[in-house]
Amino acid sequence: MELTKEQEKMLSGERGKAVQKAMEILTGLGDIYGAEKFTPVQSAHVSGVSIRTAGDAGLNFIEEMVEEGAKVTVPTTINPAALDLRDWDEMGVPEEISRKQIRIIDAYREMGADPVCSCIPYLVGNEPSQGQHIAWSESSAVIYANSVLGARTHREGAPSALASAVTGLTPVYGYHLDENRSGSVGIRPDPDLFAGGGTFQFSVLGYWVGANFPESVPVIENLHPNPEQEKALGAGMATSGAIALYHIPRVTPEAKENPEICETDEEASFGTEEFEEVRGELDQTSEADIVCLGCPHASEEELRRLSCMDVENEVWVHIPRKLRKRPDMKEVYQRLREKSVKLVCDTCMVVSPLSEMGYSSIGVNSAKAAYYAPLLGDVEVHFAPLEGLIK
Ligand code: F3S
């Protein structure tokens, strides 16, 4: 890679050990992927925050970075942790997990990151604009930023996102370049399947696209999703595939600005058979100890809608603490409390220690949660639309 004089100093250690380590990570990636230079990033979002996914190795890496003087140089947010940082005791989280988790959060805080502990940073203050270069990890946020907001990011891992946060730089390759942002496969969903208006169908569609076209830039035809449905669609794609960008003609920003981007040589249809294939794969049980909503974290709109529905089962909704604190949401939260819906902040059903907390099965309406909760949370999953789960 061609480095500027300042970047050479950063790499040689003249700007400190942490900056040097970050530059080594980024130049290493740049060399592997054939980048010629760096570009500045406007923000970073770092995943791998939960002690359950980061482990002791992750904790040591982050604390070492702090000891070596790491400070973020661009606005930086972080992903959900393993517990609600305020109510972890009440949630029944084992103390050893909480102690280590709090050390991770403290380390990020020390570096200057905003500990939002949410996978929807774009709704809690870290919203990039179209064309901006950013360095985000958390696959559901990456695909939302690239597709719905038109920003440009790799699907970073936690170390490279942190390295970009510290240096303010990312190597230029992949989705940072125009030539890699064109659609590669057209997907034609049966619009009748999507008439209900929820997010479940979009989550299923996304999961199917990711499983069948894992390296693609899909173009989703015939649909006009709202932001919550776009969130579910992208999270599904990024779960079963390595997808980090999709387009929807006349809806997503790059497709609106440049319709040719949606022209593809390959086409595929999505109907009832494909829908049932995914549901059959992910739905493991018809019973659930609790219903866990908010994967990705629930938005204001989703909470408002839930507060107007009949809820009979025990429901937890995972949300960002910043949304929990919003004074204008007081009435909504009051209505949800009356329905015994519990708002859980800073964490989610996948990265929290559900089995250690005594749960063996959960109901979810998100394909991402349905895929990862059995793998990482050691619980069985009932995968169904929202209406069916809460009654
Ligand atoms: Fe977010 Fe956890 Fe789902 S991090 S996308 S709620 S698995």
UniProtKB/TrEMBL annotation:
Lyase among keywords: yes
Domain Phosphomevalonate dehydratase large subunit-like: 1-391
GO molecular function terms listed in the Swiss-Prot or TrEMBL record: lyase activity
Signal peptide: none
CDD domains: AcnX (cd01355)
Pathway this chain belongs to: Isoprenoid biosynthesis; isopentenyl diphosphate biosynthesis via mevalonate pathway
Reactions the enzyme catalyzes: (R)-5-phosphomevalonate = (2E)-3-methyl-5-phosphooxypent-2-enoate + H2O
Transmembrane segments: none
GO biological process, one term: isoprenoid biosynthetic process
Family of this protein: Belongs to the AcnX type II large subunit family.
Function: Component of a hydro-lyase that catalyzes the dehydration of mevalonate 5-phosphate (MVA5P) to form trans-anhydromevalonate 5-phosphate (tAHMP). Involved in the archaeal mevalonate (MVA) pathway, which provides fundamental precursors for isoprenoid biosynthesis, such as isopentenyl diphosphate (IPP) and dimethylallyl diphosphate (DMAPP).
Record text on subunit structure and interactions: Heterodimer composed of a large subunit (PMDh-L) and a small subunit (PMDh-S).
Protein name, as recorded: Phosphomevalonate dehydratase large subunit
